[in-house]
Amino acid sequence: MNVNVLKKMSSAFFAEKLLTSFMEQLDEVLIRRVADVQRELQKVKEEFKALSYQMEELSSTFRYQIGESREKITTVDQISRELVADLEASGTNLESMGSDVSNALEVTFSTLNSFFEIEQMVKSINRIAKQTRLLALNASIEAAHAGEHGRGFAVVASEVQKLAVEASDVSEKISKKISDISSSVNTTIESLKQIENMFEVLKKSFDSVLEYINDNRTFLTGLGESLASSSEKLDEGAQEMLSSVEILERVLKAFDTMTVVISAIVKAQKKLNELEL
Protein backbone atom coordinates (compact mmCIF):
# COMPACT_ATOMS: atom_id res chain seq x y z
CA MET A 1 0.00 0.00 0.00
CA ASN A 2 1.20 3.51 -0.80
CA VAL A 3 2.80 5.22 2.21
CA ASN A 4 0.99 8.51 1.57
CA VAL A 5 -2.35 6.76 1.44
CA LEU A 6 -1.56 5.00 4.70
CA LYS A 7 -0.63 8.31 6.33
CA LYS A 8 -3.86 9.93 5.16
CA MET A 9 -5.92 7.03 6.49
CA SER A 10 -4.14 7.20 9.82
CA SER A 11 -4.71 10.95 10.06
CA ALA A 12 -8.38 10.57 9.21
CA PHE A 13 -8.78 7.81 11.79
CA PHE A 14 -7.08 9.93 14.46
CA ALA A 15 -9.23 12.99 13.63
CA GLU A 16 -12.39 10.89 13.80
CA LYS A 17 -11.40 9.59 17.24
CA LEU A 18 -10.74 13.13 18.49
CA LEU A 19 -14.11 14.33 17.20
CA THR A 20 -15.88 11.37 18.82
CA SER A 21 -14.18 12.04 22.16
CA PHE A 22 -15.13 15.71 21.97
CA MET A 23 -18.77 14.90 21.21
CA GLU A 24 -18.97 12.44 24.10
CA GLN A 25 -17.56 15.02 26.53
CA LEU A 26 -19.95 17.64 25.17
CA ASP A 27 -22.90 15.32 25.74
CA GLU A 28 -21.84 14.63 29.31
CA VAL A 29 -21.47 18.36 30.11
CA LEU A 30 -24.86 19.16 28.63
CA ILE A 31 -26.55 16.36 30.58
CA ARG A 32 -24.95 17.56 33.82
CA ARG A 33 -26.15 21.09 33.22
CA VAL A 34 -29.68 19.93 32.51
CA ALA A 35 -29.61 17.83 35.67
CA ASP A 36 -28.45 20.84 37.71
CA VAL A 37 -31.35 22.92 36.44
CA GLN A 38 -33.77 20.08 37.18
CA ARG A 39 -32.56 19.85 40.77
CA GLU A 40 -32.93 23.59 41.22
CA LEU A 41 -36.44 23.53 39.79
CA GLN A 42 -37.36 20.67 42.12
CA LYS A 43 -36.16 22.65 45.14
CA VAL A 44 -38.18 25.69 44.06
CA LYS A 45 -41.27 23.55 43.57
CA GLU A 46 -40.97 22.09 47.06
CA GLU A 47 -40.53 25.56 48.54
CA PHE A 48 -43.65 26.74 46.73
CA LYS A 49 -45.60 23.77 48.10
CA ALA A 50 -44.47 24.47 51.66
CA LEU A 51 -45.38 28.14 51.33
CA SER A 52 -48.80 27.21 49.97
CA TYR A 53 -49.51 25.00 52.99
CA GLN A 54 -48.43 27.77 55.34
CA MET A 55 -50.74 30.22 53.60
CA GLU A 56 -53.66 27.81 53.95
CA GLU A 57 -53.01 27.50 57.69
CA LEU A 58 -52.78 31.26 58.06
CA SER A 59 -56.04 31.68 56.17
CA SER A 60 -57.76 29.28 58.59
CA THR A 61 -56.45 31.30 61.53
CA PHE A 62 -57.74 34.49 59.96
CA ARG A 63 -61.21 33.04 59.57
CA TYR A 64 -61.24 32.12 63.26
CA GLN A 65 -60.17 35.65 64.19
CA ILE A 66 -62.96 37.08 62.07
CA GLY A 67 -65.50 35.13 64.13
CA GLU A 68 -63.97 36.43 67.35
CA SER A 69 -64.06 40.00 66.08
CA ARG A 70 -67.74 39.76 65.18
CA GLU A 71 -68.57 38.64 68.72
CA LYS A 72 -66.72 41.63 70.14
CA ILE A 73 -68.55 43.94 67.77
CA THR A 74 -71.88 42.69 69.09
CA THR A 75 -70.76 43.13 72.71
CA VAL A 76 -69.65 46.75 72.39
CA ASP A 77 -72.21 47.82 69.82
CA GLN A 78 -74.39 49.86 72.16
CA ILE A 79 -71.47 51.58 73.88
CA SER A 80 -69.90 52.41 70.53
CA ARG A 81 -73.14 53.94 69.24
CA GLU A 82 -73.36 56.25 72.21
CA LEU A 83 -69.70 57.20 71.93
CA VAL A 84 -69.97 57.92 68.21
CA ALA A 85 -73.02 60.10 68.82
CA ASP A 86 -71.17 62.12 71.45
CA LEU A 87 -68.14 62.63 69.25
CA GLU A 88 -70.21 63.58 66.21
CA ALA A 89 -72.05 66.10 68.36
CA SER A 90 -68.66 67.60 69.17
CA GLY A 91 -67.83 68.01 65.51
CA THR A 92 -65.80 64.83 64.91
CA ASN A 93 -66.88 62.58 62.08
CA LEU A 94 -65.96 59.23 63.58
CA GLU A 95 -67.68 57.27 60.82
CA SER A 96 -65.46 58.91 58.22
CA MET A 97 -62.39 58.22 60.33
CA GLY A 98 -63.39 54.61 60.83
CA SER A 99 -63.86 54.22 57.10
CA ASP A 100 -60.39 55.63 56.45
CA VAL A 101 -58.87 53.32 59.03
CA SER A 102 -60.71 50.36 57.54
CA ASN A 103 -59.52 51.16 54.03
CA ALA A 104 -55.95 51.68 55.21
CA LEU A 105 -55.91 48.43 57.14
CA GLU A 106 -57.41 46.55 54.21
CA VAL A 107 -54.79 47.84 51.79
CA THR A 108 -51.98 47.23 54.29
CA PHE A 109 -52.99 43.66 55.07
CA SER A 110 -53.46 42.84 51.40
CA THR A 111 -50.13 44.37 50.48
CA LEU A 112 -48.17 42.64 53.21
CA ASN A 113 -49.75 39.24 52.49
CA SER A 114 -49.10 39.50 48.75
CA PHE A 115 -45.72 41.20 48.64
CA PHE A 116 -43.68 38.57 50.45
CA GLU A 117 -45.18 35.77 48.35
CA ILE A 118 -44.52 37.51 45.06
CA GLU A 119 -41.04 38.59 46.10
CA GLN A 120 -40.02 34.96 46.63
CA MET A 121 -41.62 33.96 43.35
CA VAL A 122 -39.69 36.62 41.43
CA LYS A 123 -36.38 35.61 42.98
CA SER A 124 -36.91 31.95 42.21
CA ILE A 125 -38.19 32.44 38.67
CA ASN A 126 -35.49 34.97 37.79
CA ARG A 127 -32.87 32.48 38.96
CA ILE A 128 -34.46 29.74 36.86
CA ALA A 129 -34.70 32.01 33.82
CA LYS A 130 -31.03 32.99 34.07
CA GLN A 131 -29.89 29.40 34.40
CA THR A 132 -32.12 28.29 31.54
CA ARG A 133 -30.93 31.06 29.23
CA LEU A 134 -27.32 30.22 30.03
CA LEU A 135 -27.96 26.56 29.32
CA ALA A 136 -29.66 27.41 26.01
CA LEU A 137 -26.79 29.67 24.96
CA ASN A 138 -24.15 27.08 25.78
CA ALA A 139 -26.08 24.35 24.00
CA SER A 140 -26.50 26.53 20.89
CA ILE A 141 -22.80 27.37 20.81
CA GLU A 142 -21.76 23.76 21.24
CA ALA A 143 -24.24 22.63 18.58
CA ALA A 144 -22.83 25.17 16.14
CA HIS A 145 -19.28 24.00 16.82
CA ALA A 146 -20.30 20.39 16.29
CA GLY A 147 -21.47 21.09 12.76
CA GLU A 148 -23.27 18.18 11.14
CA HIS A 149 -23.02 16.16 14.34
CA GLY A 150 -24.70 18.94 16.30
CA ARG A 151 -28.08 18.88 14.62
CA GLY A 152 -29.54 16.92 17.49
CA PHE A 153 -28.12 19.41 19.93
CA ALA A 154 -29.62 22.28 17.96
CA VAL A 155 -33.08 20.79 18.49
CA VAL A 156 -32.40 20.46 22.19
CA ALA A 157 -31.10 24.03 22.35
CA SER A 158 -34.26 25.27 20.67
CA GLU A 159 -36.42 23.53 23.27
CA VAL A 160 -34.35 25.00 26.06
CA GLN A 161 -34.72 28.47 24.57
CA LYS A 162 -38.50 28.03 24.55
CA LEU A 163 -38.38 27.16 28.22
CA ALA A 164 -36.31 30.27 28.87
CA VAL A 165 -38.88 32.44 27.09
CA GLU A 166 -41.68 30.89 29.14
CA ALA A 167 -39.80 31.51 32.37
CA SER A 168 -39.09 35.11 31.35
CA ASP A 169 -42.77 35.70 30.60
CA VAL A 170 -43.74 34.45 34.04
CA SER A 171 -41.09 36.67 35.61
CA GLU A 172 -42.38 39.72 33.73
CA LYS A 173 -45.94 39.11 34.91
CA ILE A 174 -44.83 38.81 38.49
CA SER A 175 -42.66 41.92 38.18
CA LYS A 176 -45.72 43.83 37.00
CA LYS A 177 -47.65 42.60 40.02
CA ILE A 178 -44.87 43.80 42.31
CA SER A 179 -45.06 47.21 40.64
CA ASP A 180 -48.79 47.35 41.33
CA ILE A 181 -48.21 46.38 44.94
CA SER A 182 -45.58 49.11 45.34
CA SER A 183 -48.14 51.63 44.17
CA SER A 184 -50.60 50.33 46.75
CA VAL A 185 -47.98 50.62 49.47
CA ASN A 186 -47.36 54.26 48.62
CA THR A 187 -51.08 54.95 48.78
CA THR A 188 -51.30 53.20 52.12
CA ILE A 189 -48.48 55.26 53.58
CA GLU A 190 -50.22 58.49 52.64
CA SER A 191 -53.51 57.28 54.09
CA LEU A 192 -51.85 56.23 57.33
CA LYS A 193 -50.19 59.62 57.66
CA GLN A 194 -53.55 61.35 57.32
CA ILE A 195 -55.14 59.02 59.85
CA GLU A 196 -52.25 59.59 62.25
CA ASN A 197 -52.89 63.31 62.08
CA MET A 198 -56.60 62.77 62.64
CA PHE A 199 -55.94 60.63 65.70
CA GLU A 200 -53.58 63.26 67.06
CA VAL A 201 -56.28 65.91 66.83
CA LEU A 202 -58.76 63.55 68.44
CA LYS A 203 -56.31 62.77 71.24
CA LYS A 204 -55.84 66.41 72.12
CA SER A 205 -59.59 67.08 72.17
CA PHE A 206 -60.92 63.88 73.72
CA ASP A 207 -58.21 62.31 75.94
CA SER A 208 -60.87 60.97 78.25
CA VAL A 209 -62.49 58.81 75.54
CA LEU A 210 -59.45 57.51 73.59
CA GLU A 211 -59.65 54.09 75.23
CA TYR A 212 -63.25 53.67 74.04
CA ILE A 213 -62.40 54.86 70.54
CA ASN A 214 -59.94 51.99 70.10
CA ASP A 215 -62.78 49.57 70.93
CA ASN A 216 -65.63 51.24 69.09
CA ARG A 217 -68.00 49.50 66.71
CA THR A 218 -66.75 51.20 63.57
CA PHE A 219 -63.15 50.25 64.21
CA LEU A 220 -64.01 46.64 64.95
CA THR A 221 -66.23 46.46 61.89
CA GLY A 222 -63.42 47.82 59.75
CA LEU A 223 -60.98 45.39 61.30
CA GLY A 224 -63.32 42.47 60.66
CA GLU A 225 -63.70 43.50 57.03
CA SER A 226 -59.94 43.87 56.71
CA LEU A 227 -59.39 40.41 58.18
CA ALA A 228 -61.97 38.96 55.81
CA SER A 229 -60.31 40.65 52.87
CA SER A 230 -56.90 39.43 54.01
CA SER A 231 -58.25 35.89 54.29
CA GLU A 232 -59.50 36.08 50.71
CA LYS A 233 -56.14 37.39 49.58
CA LEU A 234 -54.42 34.54 51.35
CA ASP A 235 -56.69 32.04 49.59
CA GLU A 236 -55.92 33.68 46.26
CA GLY A 237 -52.21 33.67 47.04
CA ALA A 238 -52.33 29.99 47.95
CA GLN A 239 -54.06 29.24 44.66
CA GLU A 240 -51.43 31.22 42.78
CA MET A 241 -48.72 29.25 44.52
CA LEU A 242 -50.40 25.97 43.54
CA SER A 243 -50.61 27.22 39.95
CA SER A 244 -46.90 28.04 40.08
CA VAL A 245 -46.18 24.52 41.33
CA GLU A 246 -48.12 23.10 38.37
CA ILE A 247 -46.10 25.26 35.98
CA LEU A 248 -42.86 24.07 37.55
CA GLU A 249 -44.00 20.47 37.23
CA ARG A 250 -44.63 21.00 33.51
CA VAL A 251 -41.18 22.54 33.15
CA LEU A 252 -39.62 19.59 34.99
CA LYS A 253 -41.40 17.17 32.65
CA ALA A 254 -40.04 19.10 29.69
CA PHE A 255 -36.54 18.84 31.11
CA ASP A 256 -37.06 15.11 31.64
CA THR A 257 -37.96 14.75 27.99
CA MET A 258 -34.93 16.77 26.99
CA THR A 259 -32.67 14.58 29.13
CA VAL A 260 -34.08 11.45 27.49
CA VAL A 261 -33.42 12.93 24.04
CA ILE A 262 -29.83 13.82 24.92
CA SER A 263 -29.22 10.39 26.44
CA ALA A 264 -30.61 8.75 23.32
CA ILE A 265 -28.26 10.81 21.17
CA VAL A 266 -25.31 9.80 23.35
CA LYS A 267 -26.24 6.12 23.09
CA ALA A 268 -26.66 6.38 19.34
CA GLN A 269 -23.23 7.97 18.97
CA LYS A 270 -21.65 5.25 21.06
CA LYS A 271 -23.28 2.54 18.94
CA LEU A 272 -22.03 4.24 15.78
CA ASN A 273 -18.52 4.32 17.22
CA GLU A 274 -18.74 0.60 17.98
CA LEU A 275 -19.59 -0.27 14.37
CA GLU A 276 -16.72 -1.71 12.38
CA LEU A 277 -16.74 -0.78 8.73
Layout of secondary structure:
Blueprint: H1 3-75, H2 77-89, H3 94-146, H4 151-205, H5 210-214, H6 217-274
Strand content: under 5%
CATH class: Mainly Alpha
| Fraction of residues in helix | over 70%
Query: pLDDT average, as an integer?
Result: 67
Q: N- to C-terminal separation?
A: 19 Å
Cα gyration radius (Å): 32 Å
CATH topology: Helix Hairpins
Count of the separate structural domains: 1
Strand count, sense and barrel status of the largest sheet are:
none
Which regions contain 5 or more consecutive residues with pLDDT less than 50?
Answer: none
Number of helices: 6
Structural class of the helices, strands and pairings? mainly alpha
CATH architecture term? Orthogonal Bundle
Output the helix-strand order.
HHHHHH
Strands, total number: 0
Shape: elongated
Please give a structural write-up.
With about 280 residues, the chain is mainly α. It has helices at about 5-75, 75-90, 95-145, 150-205, 210-215, 215-275. The two termini are about 20 Å apart.
Provide tags for this entry.
277 residues; mainly alpha; Helix Hairpins; 6 helices
In short:
This protein is mainly alpha-helical and 277 residues long.
